[in-house]
Design goal:
Number of helices: 8
Strand order of the largest sheet: 4-3-2-1-8
Largest sheet: 5 strands, parallel
Distance between the termini: 23 Å
Oligomer: single chain
């Protein structure tokens, strides 16, 4: 069966504040863009919406829009930014979890894990998760890799840590139940109708059917899944 699940990644919603770095600004989208994607996701449940970084707009804008549409989403939160201005608070994370939203780990400090020493990577995978579980009041077993930067070591440590689903920014489509999940990043100029049709089309399905197994073999995913089955 061809992969057919389109996983999209949002970051900030609305107008970025002056504190947002110039490199991050293209990843902030208007509520209208999010609303158009939500409508597509309501019509096609093969579309999955996720959020990275844990900006306050997740709670202020995205959650009410999702709830009104009867949808849930997974929010990958940076534990090290909790309670900072412009970021989610611990109380907001708890409220989001109570609403039925998924809370995932995005690490502690938004850094490239491929260049981290083992003790730093442990902090990103384990310590950050404990902080988020304490805030959310529920287990955190999904992981989003910052910058989409991973290698065999990063995935090995993540599987050893017990994460059930590991989300990347590699592009393409996924199958239901995949543990290494490719995602597609939404930018400010995203066109919900046109870009979703392109990203979810048969060409993308065929490419993903070939690319996903090759990627899994390259990074030893199947071996680690077998050795760390949950």
């Amino acid at each position: 069966m061809f992969p057919d699940r389109l996983v999209l990644t949002f970051h900030g919603i609305g107008a970025p504040s002056a504190a947002i770095d110039a490199a991050e600004r293209p990843y902030w989208v208007t509520p209208e863009v999010l609303g158009a994607v939500i409508q597509q996701a309501r019509a096609d449940r093969r579309i999955e919406i996720t959020f990275d970084d844990g900006y306050a707009s997740d709670f202020d804008i995205a959650c009410p829009m999702l709830a009104e549409a009867g949808l849930s989403s997974t929010f990958f939160v940076l534990a090290g930014r909790l309670d900072r201005p412009g970021s989610l608070s611990r109380m907001q994370v708890a409220e989001m979890a109570a609403m039925g939203m998924g809370i995932g780990n995005h690490g502690m400090d938004h850094r490239d894990w491929t260049s981290c020493a083992d003790d730093v990577l442990h902090r990103e995978l384990h310590d950050a998760r404990h902080i988020l579980e304490d805030a959310a009041g529920c287990p955190v077993d999904s992981l989003s890799i910052p910058f989409g930067a991973f290698d065999r070591r990063v995935l090995q440590k993540a599987f050893e840590a017990g994460y059930r689903r590991i989300f990347t920014s590699s592009g393409g489509l996924a199958r239901r139940g995949d543990r290494l999940v490719p995602r597609n990043t939404v930018c400010h100029d995203f066109d919900a109708l046109g870009d979703i049709a392109r990203l979810a089309g048969w060409g993308s399905r065929a490419r993903s059917a070939v690319r996903n197994p090759l990627r899994a073999r390259k990074y030893g995913v199947n071996t680690w899944m077998a050795d760390h089955a949950l």
